[in-house]
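FIELD: query
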Amino acid sequence: MTRPPLPVRALVPRLALALLAWIALYALLPAAAHWFTYRLLPLTPQTPLAGAIEFFVFEASKVLLLLVLVVFGVGIVRSFFTPERTRAMLAGRAESAGNVLAAALGVVTPFCSCSAVPLFIGFLTAGVPLGVTFSFLIAAPMVNEVALALLFGLFGWKIAALYLGTGLSIAIVAGWVIGRLRLERHVEPWVYAIKANDGGAPLPMPTWEDRIGAGSEAVRDIVGRVWPWVLAGIAVGAGIHGWVPENFMAAIMGKDAWWSVPLAVLIGVPMYSNAAGIIPVVHALIEKGAALGTVLAFMMSVIALSLPEMIILRKVLRPALISVFIAIVAGGIVLVGFLFNAFL
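FIELD: result
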């Protein structure tokens, strides 16, 4: 016998209680990290080891708590989207307007670089233009909702808004440029030979209990997969925080070094990490004097131009189109880095 879904009025008190517990835990983090470092261990204050451990304990707890809250919320939002619905929203859209909509959908839909091949095929066979498809594929990993929330939690709304605005701009402009270049001949021919799937019978509309269940499942799935990356990134950040001298990063990633932004992008492209793992490194680099534009360029190149995604895309794109894609996106990231360094 199927259990009837809980009404919304029964779910709201539970969610409110859970949110209050989350807020209480979050407020206790600074004192807990200080107690762990100097009372439980105890370590000598003002030493590199003590600073690194306090940074690690505080940031690890903070980022994981933020991840749980953000991923739960995003899981609920994603319950409103399916690949079929996303394709239907983009199919037949004219370029320009389609690029904007595709980039916006890339922020909130549950797709990442590992979904690149099936998404690419599905979009093109559904009639989505090549440039519009690229706007989506650029925005989906680059303007990561987890990265956006972590930037907000660590740096405030201004930095988070700059990241969102510049990431969407790169996705929109890059997709539009690729569309203008008419590079469809560099897509593997077998992709266009596939017939679009109409998706079959529509699925029933999920209840709010189903959506909250989707949020809980997203926490188990996503946080369960990314927490090692988070701790690894925070460990790197703790090392930078504890042992890298003040303003050392300003010498190699500061505003005065004109080559710092291109070098940061070149270093970031072959790396592989997710947003949750790279944000703590970004935090530590900025604390030590690195320029905001240089660090954001590094972060964007790591999560938007990862080597594994390029390898996956090679299954459907010829090298010429992959090279154009990398050049346009990397150029946009470099430009963003220079603009941030010049005006912030």
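FIELD: remark
The longest helix spans residues 208-243.
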